[in-house]
Amino acid sequence: MPRTLVDKLWDQHAILTREDGETLIWIDRHFVHEGSHHAFAKLKSRGARVARPDLTFGVADHYVPTRGRAGPIPDEGVRRMVEQLTENTGLHGVHLFGLDDPRQGIVHVVGPEQGLTLPGLTVVCGDSHTSTHGAFGALAFGIGASEVAHVLTTQTLWQRKPKRMRISVEGPLTPGVGAKDIALTWIARLGADGAQGHAIEYAGSAVRALSMEGRLTLCNLSIEGGGRCGMVAPDETTLAYLRGRPYAPAGEAFERAAGDWLALAGDADAAFDREVSFRGDEIAPTVTWGTNPGDALPIDAAVPDPERIADPGRAAHARDALAYMDLRPGQPLTGIRIDRVFIGSCTNARIEDLRAAAAVLAGRTARVPGLVSPGSSLVKRQAEEEGLDRIFVEAGLDWVESGCSMCVGMNGDLLKPGERSASTTNRNFKGRQGPGSRTHLMSPAMAAAAAVAGHLADARPMLAGRL
Amino acid sequence: MEPLRRLDRAVACPLPLANVDTDQIIPARFMKQPRQAGYGGFLLHDLRFGPDGAALGLSLDDPARAGAGVLVARRNFGGGSSREAAVYALVDFGVRCVVAPSFGDIFASNAVNNGLLPAVVSEADAERLIAALEGGLDRLSVDLEACRIEGLPEPVSFSVDPVWRTKLLNGWDDLDLTLSHADAIRAWAEADAERRRWARPSSSC
Predict the structure, then answer these.
(1) For residue B76, which of A416, A466, B129, B196 sits 20 to 30 Å off, Cα-Cα?
(2) Do A442 and A423 form a contact (C-beta atoms < 8 A)?
(3) Band of pLDDT at residue A443, cut at 50, 70 and 90
């Protein structure tokens, strides 16, 4: 029977399947972070050890400060979180990319960058954006603390096979449109729960044409449409990215592996439970107006009017969202003034993202303050080698260290109550960037354009002649 | 884990909101605490309390709903972040069952791992239950063996993954079950190490 990519990944990791359909699957890579303290506490209470420290990697990202790293972390609670990770990984012999490591960064940036994430692997982490790693053709998904403890103890997980969904984008994207816009567009069409229970495979010529950075952004946002995971079949773009990465196979071993990886692509006649398709040229620069990532529209649209939404549940949601966001029905999106810009996160802080933001900001001044936090310390170094840091600083934005920062606000990088941000992150939930914060999600180029304009704005005119 | 068979005339609370994501169920700033501290006070914190700490009048804080064991919400309850702390907040508050038309995938499996039942009902039944609770009904019984919610004139059926139902009914923990397969896991891993030699991280680091 013809198989899709997810079928092949599933079959290669199934240890046993019970009569009730639950399958015990093998986990190839497990990433832990400061938030994994609950799971380590569970191990301690059972007197258990980490079964495979060689397949487990720690990354300090959720709580790390983005400034003043030379000294001790001033906030005691935050400091304790970072110290706990160092203690727990040390105790169990797990390698840690800690605060003092030149390779430190956000787990979903570090994994790929180090070649820890490979095609054909199962990758889990106690973080919903683990779907990011699927960009390599891996089965990668976020899990909760009980499951983290289960993987630490057994290197396995009980799972029910997800349904298969294919999202295809055919035909070229227009200039100034990228992976973030594809993601916000499909999530807006299907809803924030549109892909629940499904493993998403992204396909079509526009997806094939994306760089690894773009594919990582696209897969990262799978969870925002409710998907269990997202993936792209490995191809030459995947192989080119992986060659020479520190933890990836090298030399002949790489070429042998590459054969196995390319064979993971779904069979031509394999069936999906659900298919959705878009034309590349129907995707515009897209921003969110509401309180979940499905509340997204092209930048030239207006804030929706709840009175014109037929479905009562959706109308109620829109009313509530507009009240929280302090927006009026019919107001043009481009007129929405912002207080702050954040360029960062596991969604959009890779080198290509920073280049796109810098292309808009070069020679221009931001009208609002903002933070640029690279996805990893290595991305930071590369950006500095390319002179991007100077562009951000000259525009008036702060160039800081790498971490989850203002995407989740755990380290203290927060908006003030009522403040409105243009943000390259993944969640515009109420209070996500701090109590009372108002978040508009968009691509790095669009966030940079908003910084320059002081309000939401179309980046395309500002990119003219610069792409 | 404590088995869950039936919640008899539990205090039930309407939460007439869609897309209650896990950031709202427990805001990130509370997650530094060890679990022993108890997470119940953080449940839906910023929907319940303003910046000055004053109660905003959410249904959960209505004295008639004190000790709520069942919540009834709209679609996509628990989407977003994988934080199991969202489930800790519900469980520590005393909630044993959330009824909604759909749940975030990760939230639902976290719930089951902590003995909390994610009961899926139709949109129409969720609206009927919410309307009845807002109209003064304050108790519901949840029968997991029969997959039935009682309290309205007609019982409401709910669905739950049969595997999860068995786990909840018996209070089973995955870990004990998995450890009983230790030999099969070991044999599989040995064969796999030959089959997929590239799957181990390169040892050159």
Answers:
(1) A416
(2) yes
(3) very high
